[in-house]
Amino acid sequence: MQKQALVLRLRAALLGATMLSGLVAAEAHAQTAPAASNGDAVEEVIVTGYRKSLAQSTVAKREATSFADSIFAEDIGKFPDSNIAESFNRIPGITITRDITGEGTNVAIRGLGSNFTNVTLNGASIAVASSGATDAQGTDRSVDLSFFPTDLFTKLTVNKSYSADLLEGGAAGNIDMRSARPFDRPGQHITYSLQGVKPSGADLGGKGSLILSKTWDTFGVLFGVSGQRLHTDTRGYETIGFTNPNLSAAQCGATSGCNPTGGGNWTIPSTVPVGAGAGLVAGTTIDQAFLLSKNPGATIQQIDNGLLPRLGRPSAEFGTRDRINLVGSVEWRPTENLSFYLDGMYGYKNNDLQREDMAWIVRNGAAIPLNTKYDKTDCSAGCTVTQGTYANSQFFLEYRPYLEKTELWGVNPGGEWRINDKLKVEGQVNYAKSTFHRESPTFGPVTALGQGTTVDYTYNPTGIPTIKSSVDLNNPANFVWTGGRLNMQDEKRWYETKGARGSVTWGDEKLNLKFGGNYDDVSRTIRGYDNSQAWQNATCGDNPNIYLPAPNGQPPCQGLNQPGAAPAGYPTYPGYGTGYTAGQTTPLTYGGSLIPTANLASFLKPGPAGFVTVDWDAVKKATNYDKFHDNTPETGGSNTGASGGYINEKNAAAYTEVNGVTQVLDNDLRFNVGVRYVHTKQTIGGRVSVADPRNTPASGQLPDGARYPNLVNFVYVENTYSKWLPAANIAYDVSEHAVARAAVSETMTRPDPAAQLPGVSFSAPSADQATIGNSALKPYFSKNIDLGFEFYTGQEGVIAVNAFRKSITGFTTNNVVTQPFSYLAQYGITYDTLNDTQKTAINSRGGPTGAQVQIQSQINVPNKLTINGLEFQWVQPLDFLTRRFGVEGLGVNANATIVDQTSDGPAIAYGVAKYTYNLTGYYEHHGVSLRLTQTFRQGSQSSGANQNGIGSAALFTDDYKQVDFSSSFDLEKLFGLRNLPQVTFNAINLTNAAQRSYFQYSNATFTYYKPGREFLLGVRATF
User: Fold this and answer.
1) What SS3 string covers 299-359?
2) Count of CB atoms within 10 A of residue 306's CB?
3) Within its chain, how far is the Cα of 48 from the centroid?
4) How confident is the model at residue 37 (pLDDT cuts 50, 70, 90)?
5) Which residues have CB under 8 Å from 975's CB, separation 6+?
6) Measuring CA to CA, which residue among 361, 390, 384, 392 is closest to residue 244?
7) For 796-813, how does the pLDDT look when each residue is reduced to its tens digit (9 = 90+)?
8) Burial zone of 437 (CB within 10 Å; 0-12 exposed, 13-18 middle, 19+ buried)
9) DSSP string, 790-842
């Protein structure tokens, strides 16, 4: 009796919790299960379209043993979202990374970056060679989801808790994308869709898809194609960071204690130069007294520590983004217990873009501050310049064609054999290859110094500051070469993924043992190519007939047109014919710049963004661009900022798990308990450059023209490690409509490949930071606990609450050490190997013997990072409320996530939003489907400290809120005529939300992009 009473009390407690959670939905559930009396038939409620997709997701969630969410296509070729990343954004605990165009690119799960999410395609590993979002390197383990159209997929699954049969690699979770197969919908079907796409400010584009499928008794074939051409025109603002002046002792008024906050990437001249403007007299000493008199009300502390944008620049990116994807699938089911499939996919993405920026040069510049104001009186820890006039200013045009091509092709055959009622065997192999090529030259003339150019600067605490130039930046005649530069850089990538996996399951639904294993071989190769110096020499360096690589001298970019002997100050190569050039006898002559300063204006023209642009076709022809480009040599760096190198990972794993269902208190308890063993072998290779010792014989340094370029070796290192990863999931049916869940596991993510490459990167024009790879980085390990409760209210309705904790070790941080510039000589980086822009930057900081640089490298820290979170989900049809008013089909789909992180040291997860939510109101009835969605992500810290040499400076993102509208009108249902299509209309970013980030202080705008609104009108049909 006592035991029976205890059982009753436990059951009552659980049911009480169920009733509390389901109070809101109690009446809603009644609509789907009316009592049958006096022989009345029970009405069956049939949902289609978006509601059908929600209902399938709800069923899958309820039937899962682990914490998993799925999104289903409404039908083949009819996914409810236009972008895969946007689809995942509907799931609680999921956040997405957006490109500056507003398009979703990467997915992050439960507070960890996309690098911690393992993405698979049809259950197999996948790696896309794309660089991802604009200005991203894309060298980590994330997958660019903008490469995959939703049209060709039927199911997307997010596994938030781990089970032993899942591929390891996702400390945050696993995502699987399931492409369409013929038996997803038996029979013969043709599905098509066409959409016109009109972004605000850009031309009309379009997208479309066609899927053909047919099944016979045991055989099925499916083929699908999806393509798009989108026009984009995104306006914004960029800074490349903030800095403050590096005051001299005379300007600071002391021999020490100046610039205590760091930075100092801008030098105020010691005397007023000729043509500084603003009425300043050339030759006047600029000391402390001068600065205080010219900045009334300001203190030296404010002038010393006040932050300005390093390169405050309005930006415009416009052009076309093309993509085509193909899928093919064959299924053969010779018996009910034996089935085979062969899936294939091809994807091609081509971005033909132009990026234009007009940068106010503060970094490495020599501006003179006048009448400045600041946001703080006490600026000892730093402050922001709010207003001022800056004499002796200069602007830099950065015109960059962006030509990107990404390809992916892959195949994965597999099969399943149910040998008998108790024994099942599954197997799959996969192969995929992806390539990427970016060509992005830079054409960069400047406004002339000494012409009286001034800037009136006024900050905007929430948006784009005002940077008003005294010269017309849309007039080609105002630009020269002296101080400008050209770049010719390419990057190529080759990714290859191959593997096999298999499993054996013995038992039935009540109890079964599953064991299996997999082998995956993934390689990534990145190569950078650079022919900038040779192209620049010909274009604006008076065009010498001999090109010698550094550390031999290079002509400056001044746009001279002086054919004949070397102009004054230009290389004469006295050592030519000896050393590196031994045996060469061609006399050195100069032919005159291919685009001399006198002709520069004819290659520029007024631009649509308010500043000049470039006649690129004319530039290519005049400068022999194609010839130089075809002969571009390989270098260590690349135009995405990624380091060149190679990494190969061979991962072998085996697992076993027990699955089943048993009765507890007369209700089902489902369980999954297992362990996975994984062994990883890494081979990491990178370019290591060292100075050639022949340049410094005992007799002294070789003369210019005889010096040997750096010696380059490709160095390989190997790492191996193994790990046991346990996992357990249980799901208990508290009642007919409620499920309680719990899970514990340990997961892992391998270290960032880009951070492991040996060698050093020192390519930034500011020449103030070097990045050194650390091939000994260890994996991240996370111990996870999940608890959840769900109440199912009928049809697609569900109310869910989940709590989770992740305790992560092996986290990395950016270790930064300040060293003299000479420290880099051991890596082959000397003053003679720098380009002109970098030499100018070094000279402004004291020259090669006085300048300091920051050496940064990723290191594992011993500290533990703990992430705690809560997830809330509510999907609810509202017919039970609205039917009495004659309205049916309304509903709400909402979710919210709260994430908090704590650490006992420097371990920090960047880009973790504390609060996120998605709220969708929908209506679907009689062929009309309407959805209005609001997505919110709270701002967060997105980088570590010590940005641009300022110790306490980090980067942060603002809150982001976006509102989208989606609709479809089924003409067949509306008008009762067969084979009529659906008409669709979507509007993205209705509120014209902007993406903003800031530097250290919330009023210091770091980047600001306005992707604008986008409208899509189309038709789709299945028959």
Assistant:
1) CHHHHHHEEEECEEEEEEEEEEEEEEEEEEEEEEEEECCEEEEEEEEEEEEEEEEEEEEEE
2) 27
3) 35
4) very low
5) none
6) 384
7) 999 999 999 999 988 887
8) middle
9) EEEEETTEEEEEEEEEEEEES-EEEEEEEEEGGGGGGGT--GGGS-HHHHHHH
- Residue 591 has phi, psi (to 5 degrees) of -105, -5
Which residues, 6+ apart, have CB-to-CB distance to 114 below 8 Å?
97, 106, 107, 108, 140, 142, 143
Give me the phi and psi of 53, to 5 degrees please.
-60, -45
Q: What is the mean pLDDT of residues 2-25?
A: 38
The percentage of the chain sitting over the pLDDT mark of 70, rounded to a whole number, equals 93
HEC profile of 54-102? HHHHHHHHHHCCCCEEEEECCCCCCCCCCCHHHHHCCCCCEEEEECCCC
Q: For residue 392, is pLDDT > 90?
A: yes
What is the separation, in whole angstroms, between the first and last Cα of the chain? 63
181 token code pair: 């197969």
Residue from 133, 90, 101 nearest 114 by CA? 133
Chain centroid to CA 262: how far?
29
State the CB neighbour count (10 A cutoff) for residue 172.
Answer: 28
Antiparallel, parallel or unpaired: β 242-243 and 338-361: unpaired
Which residue, among 935, 921, 1023, 918, has the nearest Cα to 967 in the 3D structure? Answer: 921
For residue 63, report the phi and psi dihedrals to the nearest 5 degrees.
Answer: -80, -15
Distance, CA of 482 to CA of 396 (rounded, Å): 11
| CA dihedral (580, 586, 589, 595) positive or negative | negative
**Three-class DSSP category at 718:** strand
- Rounded Cα distance, 700 and 696, in Å: 6
In sign, the C-alpha dihedral spanning 458, 459, 462, 464 is positive
> Whole-angstrom Cα distance, residue 308 to residue 384?
7
Residues with Cβ within 8 Å of 229's Cβ and at least 6 positions away in sequence, in order, are: 205, 206, 207, 320, 321, 322
Most confident of 151-155, 605-609, 708-712: 605-609
Residue 147 in 3-state DSSP?
helix
Q: Residue 594 corresponds to which tokens in the numbers above?
A: 């291919």
For 747-784, the pLDDT digits (tens) are: 998 888 778 877 777 767 777 777 887 888 889 899 99
Which class for 34: exposed (0-12), middle (13-18), buried (19 or more C-beta within 10 A)?
exposed
Say yes or no to pLDDT of 180 above 90: yes
Q: What is the mean pLDDT of residues 867-878?
A: 94
Give the whole-angstrom CA distance, residue 754 versus residue 752. Answer: 6
How far, in Å, CA of 109 to CA of 91, rounded? 10
Say which amino acid occupies 262: G
Alpha helices in 99-217 (DSSP H): none
Residue 220, classed as helix, strand or coil, is strand
Q: Is 926 exposed, middle or buried (0-12, 13-18, 19+ CB in 10 A)?
A: exposed
| 645: nearest Cα among 659, 633, 634, 660 | 634
- For residue 1003, give every residue at least 6 positions away whose Cβ sits within 8 Å of its Cβ, in sequence order, or none: 375, 384, 386, 459, 461, 462
| Vertex 941: Cα angle to 937 and 946 (nearest 5) | 160
**C-alpha separations of 659 from 215, 416, 508, 512 in Å:** 33, 18, 9, 5
Task: Provide CB contacts within 8 A for 35, sequence distance 6+.
Answer: none
**Looking at the predicted structure, is the pLDDT value of residue 694 above 80?**
yes
CA distances from 121 to 313, 329, 506, 514 (A): 40, 14, 26, 22
Burial degree of 580 (CB within 10 A; 0-12, 13-18, 19+): buried
Tokens 């200013």, located at residue:
393
What is the pLDDT averaged over residues 527-549? 95
CB 459 within 8 A of CB 387: yes
The single residue listed with the structure tokens 């600065």 is: 291
